[in-house]
Each structure stands twice: as C-alpha cells, then as structure tokens.
C-alpha cells in the first residue's frame, strides 16, 4: 500500500507538542547526546568512517567476479546469499533505493547471484523473483551493464551489447572524442571494458547456470531502442562496427588493447585500488582476466585485496560497498561537532584535522589533462584515490580545517592555500564547478546505447558550486563587493560573480535548485541558500527568499522534510517524501541561512529532537544520497547522525544570537 507522506505519525506529533515548553533544555541535551555518540565512533587514527550502502547489484557483481576468478571458496559468499535474500521485498524484486517498488536490472542481477550461489530456480524466493522480473519485461529490458554481466557467463548474447572499439584509447586528448571527455567514473569503468568487449569472453562457472526462465519470448539479444532523432545514428554506427569486427577490419585494434592495458596498470594504486569505486575495480579485474593474467599476479592479488576491503561482514551477512567515504565522513563530522559548540582545540578535532592533512593529494591526476594550469592540492573521497580528488570533498575539508585547525597551524594554512588554488583552477566555463573534472560536459555521450545510465559526463552543478561559494564565505568574504578572500587571492571577484550568476540561472521556477549528489531539490536548495546568504545576502535576496519559501512549502505535517528519489524522474515529486533526519536537517540549515520562516524552522527542530534515539543517534532507512540521478543511489550511514547535529548546532547559535 502506498504510504501517505502527508500524514504525521501520531507519536511524533505528540512528542513534538510535549517539547514545546522545554525546547531549549531539550536542544542542549540532544546536542550533548549527539556529540557524545559521534565522538564514540571516531577511529583511533582520528577519522570517522560510516558504511556506504547502495542497491544489491554491487554485491551480486562481486559474486560473479569471484566465480569468474575461481576465488569464491576463499570468501564468505554464503553470507552474501543471506544478505541478498534479506534484501528481497514482498513483491519479489529488489530495489534501486528504499521504497521504490522494485527495479528490473537490480532484480535480475540479484537473481543471477543467488543462482551462482547454488539457489535453485525452484526455490520459493526465486519463483517470486522470476514473476516480478517477467512482469517487468525480463532480461531483454534490462540495462546494458546487467546484460554485460550476463554475457560473461553465457546468459546473454554478446551481439546484443554495443560495440566499443579499443582504438578509442589512441585518440589524443585534444580530439573532440577521447576518453577524457567521459566523467572520471565512466572513464575508470570504460577503459577496462574496451578489453573485455573486444575479447567477449564466456566463462564456465561452478555451478554453471542458464537464465532462460527470465526471458519474455525468445532467448535472443534485444535490439537497441530507437528514439527517432539524431541519436539513432549511434545504432547505425554500432551495426557498422559489428560488421567490421566480423570481417576483422577494426583498425588499430591490438594497439588500442595494449594502450588500455597500460592505462589500467598505471592507474592501479599500490594498495590495489582503481579510482576508489567498485565499478572501476570490478571492470579492471575483468579486463585482467580477459587478458589471461594469473590469479597470482601482483596486480590481481592487490586488486582482490582492495575489493575485499570494501566488504562489510557481520555474523550472518556479507555485502560490498560501492565506495568508501572516510575523508567525506570525517570532514562533515568535524563540521557538525564544530557547529554544535565543540571547542576547536578539542583533542578529537585536532586528531581528525591532523589525519585530514595527511590525506591531501599532492600529485597530478586525470583532472590535469583538461586543466593545464592547476597544481595539486585536493582531497579525494576515499582512503586511497590519488588520481581522482574532487572539488566537493576538498571544499568541505577546507571548511572543516578552517573551523578546527590541526596541531600544526602553519601546515594547515599551507594546505588550505593549495586547496583554494586547485579549486579555483577547476572552475568550468559555464561559471560553476563539477565534481572531478573541468568542462566535462559533452552531453551527447549520454545518447550512446552504451550510456544508458546517463552518467557519461561530469558537468558543473548547483550543489558543488554552492559548496565552493560557501567555502569562500566561511573563509571570510562576507561582502562580495567590499572584502577580499582573507585566506587567498585564488578567487577573483569576476570568477565569483560568474559562479553566482550560474546559480541564479539554475534556480527552478518554483524557487528550488537541483541536487546532483543528494536527494534531491531539498539538498540542492539548502546548499545554495547557505552559500548565497553568506556571500550576497542583499543583492541575491530575491533568489534567497524564493528558495526559502519553496523549502517551507515542502514541510510535512510532522515538522520534518523528505524527498523520494523518484523526484529525479518525476518533477511533480520535488520536495515530497516521508520525513527523514538528514533531509530535515538540510531544510533547517537552508531556512536558518535564509532567515525568516521561524515557525517552520522551529517545527523542523522539534522533529529532529523527537526522533532522536536515547543514545544520541537517529534512525533512517530511506536513501538520501545520489550516485547517478535516476539510476544509482547511496545510503550514507553517517548522514543521519552528523547532519542533524549540524542543524541543531546552527539553530542554537542563531537563537543565542
């Protein structure tokens, strides 16, 4: 039955009413409890690191990888079967994000993994899954990457997959089409696939499986869907490429394979990681397997060890994270603790700041291909990811260090200066900032059959741009027309004006902003309001007021805010969804920055107070992080803890004036 998001939970409503008379005392107690809870989670090295959960396809693909390499007996894969079964929903399928009603491709991959783990098709759970999958159109309607994984074990015909000629590797970076026009995540995943798609291997697994029962109609490759526009040229081109491959007429094929192999080996970290994300790591391991590398080769053993470190094992279950986020988690927790009143010289903050300083990346990465003037100085998301620092992480780390410097103040200042210079050099021509690259915005790449996740590029976005501008404001530039950035001369006024104009142009008619990396318009709107209120509270007052009014209009009757991931596909769902602690915190922070709307803000605070657990934590089963809008979502297990504390801390600071 569809949940009615507009109806407040009776217990929460009553709790909120009971808090009216003692709000200040409850606020202090909640902040103290939350601080103690977060401090208890700090690792001995100084960082914070929460689990990062996605849909089950990542875990399913790990089952496939170990079956292909023959390394399955040395991993607790039986626990993966327990995890996959636990994630199956009552309708028989598996979800892309919590509460979405089930998703076809994810369900097919989960079904595949369970069959590889020895679960028979006659099992009642598998029968329910099969019914769900067939009702959604079967294997023929799945995404390209699901079909790719099935092709590796003979459950789908390679001819139903798009051609990706290896010669792409040989195109120079100045050429209009080259691998550096892809987003960093697409690049790290695609280069190894050039090898796999060229070799088209079919591996025999134990047990060997067929998935014919998941086809609707004939067991045959599905044709690519034509759009009736210019993008159909890609389908015609694919036909020509397949015929050229059949006739062995693909130019520079061997050279392209060798170049791709070199690229993969050069970008493997000493720890075995590739790009810090499982898709790049998985595909690189598949490429080495297709090239007949030994399981004992150092690149293979390191790669497998790196993948193992992404695993989460409990007494009963074992699953794989798509990525790990210690730098991001640490910087955001530091900000929450600082904003809620923990002294800047508190030992926990000092230790965390010292750890962050050691994580700054001082070597060049892929970003330097399109950014010829910038010098290193960024931070990445993960423990190890030298080739791919990102702007968003770097800006948040700078703000964390500015609020709570390390035990080495001079080194802190130098690190911040390097970061500012690097971020400034990453500003895109449209005026905003993207996550990993400069001017990575050729949207036509998403029209290729291979790009059906619509994540082939990394254009500048409102939320990342807002983070940079918030950083500028936090570092001392409170009046754009009169003051200069106190920490650096990195940002020229003209460049800041371009960024501000970009944000004005990105504002939606309703007053909100799109959220690329968090779900969704609540995240984007809160981020932009925070930045604009710091830098241009008067000259952009119209934008601020419209954004704040939109946020207030989305408040649920229980006092909280929530937004479903469906809003990426259905704009009528902007700002609508069951209340969550993280999204409520974002809304409260946005309203606090904008000013006014005291009643809505106070109601949001009551929601956070009434939903807090006795140990200072919050619960949140909804998925509020975004990987690829509409296609891949993330559940950051620490979002539900530090964002509410940040909101409570800022509210208390604003109330005390």
TrEMBL record:
Residues annotated as domain Squalene cyclase N-terminal: 31-315
Record-listed E.C. numbers: 5.4.99.17
Keywords assigned: Isomerase, Repeat
A Gene Ontology BP annotation from the UniProt entry: triterpenoid biosynthetic process
Keyword hit for Repeat: yes
Coiled-coil stretches noted in the UniProt entry, renumbered to this chain: none
Highest taxon, organism lineage: Bacteria
Gene Ontology MF terms in the entry: squalene-hopene cyclase activity
Pathway(s) per entry: Secondary metabolite biosynthesis; hopanoid biosynthesis
Gene3D superfamilies membership: 1.50.10.20
Keyword Isomerase: yes
Residue stretches making up the Squalene cyclase C-terminal domain: 324-652
CDD domains to which the protein is assigned, alphabetical: SQCY_1
Pfam (any one): SQHop_cyclase_C
EC class name: isomerase
GO cellular component term of the entry, any: lipid droplet
Family stated for the protein in its record: Belongs to the terpene cyclase/mutase family.
Name the record gives this protein: Squalene--hopene cyclase
Organism of derivation: Pegethrix bostrychoides GSE-TBD4-15B
């Amino acid at each position: 039955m569809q949940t009615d998001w507009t109806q407040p939970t009776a217990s929460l409503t009553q709790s909120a009413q009971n808090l009216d008379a003692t709000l200040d005392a409850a606020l202090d107690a909640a902040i103290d409890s939350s601080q103690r809870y977060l401090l208890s989670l700090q690792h001995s090295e100084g960082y914070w690191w929460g689990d990062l959960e996605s849909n089950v396809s990542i875990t399913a693909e790990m089952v496939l990888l170990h079956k292909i390499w023959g390394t399955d007996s040395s991993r607790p894969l039986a626990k993966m079967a327990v995890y996959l079964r636990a994630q199956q929903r009552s309708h028989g399928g598996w979800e892309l994000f919590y509460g979405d009603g089930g998703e076809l491709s994810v369900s097919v991959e989960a079904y595949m993994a369970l069959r590889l783990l020895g679960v028979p098709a006659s099992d009642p759970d598998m029968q329910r899954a099969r019914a769900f999958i067939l009702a959604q159109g079967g294997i023929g309607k799945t995404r390209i990457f699901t079909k790719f994984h099935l092709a590796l074990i003979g459950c789908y015909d390679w001819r139903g997959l798009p051609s990706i000629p290896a010669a792409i590797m040989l195109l120079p970076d100045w050429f209009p089409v080259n691998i550096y026009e892809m987003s960093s995540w697409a690049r790290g995943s695609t280069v190894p696939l050039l090898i796999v798609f060229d070799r088209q291997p079919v591996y025999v697994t134990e047990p060997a499986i067929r998935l014919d029962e998941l086809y609707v109609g004939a067991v045959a490759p599905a044709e690519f869907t034509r759009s009736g526009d210019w993008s159909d040229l890609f389908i015609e081109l694919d036909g020509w490429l397949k015929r050229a491959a059949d006739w062995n007429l693909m130019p520079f094929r061997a050279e392209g394979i060798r170049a791709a192999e070199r690229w993969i080996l050069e970008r493997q970290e000493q720890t075995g990681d590739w790009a810090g994300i499982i898709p790049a790591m998985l595909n690189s391991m598949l490429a080495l397997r297709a090239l007949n590398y030994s399981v004992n080769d150092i690149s293979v053993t390191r790669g497998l060890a790196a993948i193992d470190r992404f695993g989460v094992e409990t007494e009963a279950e074992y699953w794989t994270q798509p990525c790990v986020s210690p730098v991001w988690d640490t910087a955001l927790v530091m900000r929450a603790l600082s904003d809620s009143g923990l002294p800047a010289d508190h030992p926990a903050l000092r230790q965390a700041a010292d750890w962050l300083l050691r994580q700054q990346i001082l070597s060049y990465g892929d970003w330097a291909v399109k950014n010829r003037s910038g010098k290193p100085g960024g931070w990445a998301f993960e423990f190890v990811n030298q080739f791919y620092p990102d702007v968003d992480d770097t800006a948040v780390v700078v703000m964390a260090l500015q609020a709570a410097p390390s035990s080495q103040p001079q080194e802190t200042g130098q690190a911040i200066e390097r970061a500012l210079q690097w971020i400034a050099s990453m500003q895109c021509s449209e005026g905003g900032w993207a996550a990993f690259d400069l001017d990575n915005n050729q949207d036509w790449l998403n029209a290729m059959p291979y790009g059906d996740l619509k994540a082939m590029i990394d254009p500048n976005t409102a939320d990342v741009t807002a983070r940079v501008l918030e950083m500028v404001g936090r570092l001392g530039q409170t009046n754009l027309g009169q003051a200069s950035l106190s920490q650096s001369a990195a940002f020229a006024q003209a460049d800041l004006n371009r960024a501000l104009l970009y944000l004005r142009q990105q504002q939606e008619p309703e007053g909100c902003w799109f959220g690329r990396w968090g779900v969704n318009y609540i995240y984007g709107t809160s981020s932009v309001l925070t930045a604009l209120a710091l830098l241009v509270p008067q000259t952009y007052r119209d934008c601020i007021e419209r954004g704040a009014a939109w946020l207030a209009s989305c408040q649920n009757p229980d006092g909280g805010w929530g937004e479903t991931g469906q809003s990426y596909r259905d704009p009528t769902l902007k700002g609508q969804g069951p209340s969550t602690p993280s999204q409520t915190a974002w809304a409260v922070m946005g309203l606090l920055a904008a000013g006014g709307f005291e009643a809505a803000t106070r109601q949001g605070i009551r929601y956070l107070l009434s939903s807090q657990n006795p140990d200072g934590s919050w619960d949140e089963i909804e998925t509020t992080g975004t990987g690829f809008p509409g296609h891949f979502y993330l559940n950051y297990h620490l979002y539900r803890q530090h964002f509410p504390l940040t909101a409570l801390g800022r509210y208390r600071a604003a109330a005390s004036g």
